[in-house]
Each structure stands twice: as C-alpha cells, then as structure tokens.
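Hello,

Our lab assistant flagged a job as stuck in the queue for most of the afternoon. It eventually completed. Since we weren't sure the result was trustworthy after the delay, we are filing this so someone can double-check. Below is the sequence as submitted and the structure that was eventually returned. Let us know if re-running is recommended.
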Amino acid sequence: MKILQTNRFQKAVKKLHANQKAELDNAIKLLVQNPEIGELKKGDLAGIRVYKFNMQNQLTLLGYRYIDHEPCLLMLSVGSHENFYRDLKA
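-- returned structure --
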C-alpha cells in the first residue's frame, strides 16, 4: 500500500521529536493493516477519516483519506484537537 503525504502533514512531522515520530509510525502501521479503523467524517469533511491515538500521554488526531481503488493512504494532518478540524477544512 502506498502512503502519500500532504505538505501540511510533512511540516507537522518535522516538528516532532524522535520518540513522537516512532509513536506516529506505529499509528500509521495500524492504519496500513486496517485503513478503516479511523472515524469517517461527514459534511464538510466527507471522505476524510480521523484516527485518534495517544502520543506521549496526549490525545493526537491523524487525518487521512483512504483511496480504495488503488490501495493508498493520503496523510492529511496530524496534531492535537485544538483547531484540528478547522485547519483540515482549509
């Protein structure tokens, strides 16, 4: 399965520490095994899934889009809940 990244996702990952990146990698591995594990959003965010996991005892949200016909995960954004959905719409 291919994993693609948006620029927003890449910038957010650059700011993470090594141990945080390791926890993010584990979350992405879970998504590769079961891409429908994230909650499917409705309305403005239709087609986007959000997977919630803990990164250093803090709830972190990972927004992604699963493209079924060419098994592919498009990583959209990662971060805390604060302004996450607002930024995801932009």
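-- support follow-up --
The delay was a queue issue, not a problem with the job. The result is valid. DSSP finds three helices and five strands in the chain. Strands lie at 2-5, 39-40, 49-55, 58-67, 72-79.
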